[in-house]
């Protein structure tokens, strides 16, 4: 007999989510009633983000279900990280073609494994039948005045990016059937694929950037595009120094220097943080970075004006780049 909606929610969402709700101690009522009751800490601001993943649009049809679960939460934790928030809770809206238990088992494993890593609790959601799509709403906290925003960068601020952008885009291309280059070894191929399938939201870095970064954005649509959005929100121009881009050995093996640079600028799906720091706080940033596992590399600066300038060893270059835009790229 196919699994009914009540039993599906009970088995795949309520029971596995219960332990974290109890562990956090700020979920008086989780999954099972008409709505959840949540107890935010006094004096903190609530930070809310929601992102949807649609099959065939945000992940290829036939993606590993564990990756779909992981990414659905990761992209939202990345948004909270970019605000410098402490993530706490999330809600999940699932549209499923069928109550496929093999799919659900793996999906929930990917979802709740990442949730456990960050101590966030699944507190509610919605389950409907239809073409595969997953929405997550993530909720977190930040003290008033401490949130990182896109606006706030000033001329002279230094521009940084975490991790190694471009890997996820290369991983997606491999997942979609692009051939591995001869220079790419098996462990590098796996690594690029994992960077697309299992991005690590930079929550710890976002926390460390509170009081340090003047502006921050997460990189979902391509570094050049997202750095441009940060600069535009700050009423400034951004200069990217291409030779400073932190390109991974795997990306270089797969795409060569020019290809890797292009993917790092335009690829998207990185979920790294791109942020600015006033020069006077660069030393303090270095101290904070010692507390987190990921790297951050200076890749440029903010200037007066508007738009993006790309410099290659100091010389302006006309690399073409466009980020991902759902309504322009159809
Ligand atoms: P209602 O019809 O009152 O909206 P539902 O039957 O949709 O209630 O959901 C019952 C309970 O299960 C609610 O607490 C809801 O938040 C939770 N829930 C439903 N689907 C999910 C899901 N995919 N993930 C987490 N919780 C869910
Ligand atoms: Mg109801």
Task: Give the DSSP E fraction (strand runs of 2 or more residues).
Answer: 15-25%
Low-confidence stretches: none
Structural class: alpha+beta
Estimated helix fraction? 25-40%
Secondary-structure map with pairings?
Layout: H1 5-24, E1 45-54, H2 65-82, E2 86-96, H3 101-118, E3 121-129, E4 133-142, E5 158-162, H4 167-175, H5 186-197, H6 203-208, E6 215-219, H7 223-233, E7 237-241, H8 249-266, E8 272-277, H9 282-289, E9 296-303, E10 307-312, E11 315-316
Parallel strand pairs: 2-3, 7-10
Antiparallel strand pairs: 1-4, 2-4, 5-8, 5-9, 6-8, 7-9, 10-11
The structure holds adenosine-5'-diphosphate and magnesium ion.
Structural account:
With 330 residues, the protein is α+β, with helices and mostly antiparallel strands. The protein contains 9 helices and 11 strands. The longest helix has 20 residues, at 5-24. The radius of gyration is 20 Å and the shape is globular. The structure holds adenosine-5'-diphosphate and magnesium ion. The site of adenosine-5'-diphosphate has 13 residues, from helix 1, strand 2 and strand 3.
